[in-house]
Amino acid sequence: MTTSGTDNKQPFMTETIFSKIIRREIPADIVYEDNLCLAFRDVNPQAPVHVLVIPKEPVAKLSDAESNHHALMGHLLLTVKRVAEQLELKNGYRVVINCGEDGGQTVNHLHLHILAGRSLGWPPG
C-alpha cells in the first residue's frame, strides 16, 4: 500500500488482479454482486468450494480498515452468509481472512475466503 503525497492518512491501493476483476477487465466466475462487493470462485481452489468475497472499495487488508468501514465490514460478513445459502453449503463452511504477508495474504486487496465442500481440518495451513 502507498499513500498520497498530500494526505498520509488517506491510503490507496496499487492495482491488483481483484480491481481488474471488479472492472471486468479479466474474467471471473462471479457468484454474487451488489453495489458494495463481489464474490467469485477462486482460480486456485483449496477446497471443493472456494469463493472469494471482496469489497469494491479499495481496502488493501483488514488492518487498513477504519471506523468509516464499519458498515462495509458487516456487509462483507453478511454477504458470506448469503453466498453460503445460495451455494447450499448446509454442512458448514470456513471463513478466512489473511492479513499481511506473514498472515498469508497474497493479493493486496481485502478478501474473505469461503471454504467448503469437505471436512476441513484444524489447524489450517
TrEMBL record:
Position of sequence motif Histidine triad motif: 109-113
Active site: H111 (tele-amp-histidine intermediate)
Gene3D superfamilies registered for this protein in UniProt: HIT-like
Residue ranges of domain HIT in the record: 17-125
The keyword Hydrolase is annotated on this UniProt entry: yes
Keywords, comma-separated and alphabetical: Hydrolase
GO molecular function terms attached to this record: hydrolase activity
PANTHER family: HISTIDINE TRIAD HIT PROTEIN
Name listed for the protein in its UniProt record: HIT family hydrolase, diadenosine tetraphosphate hydrolase
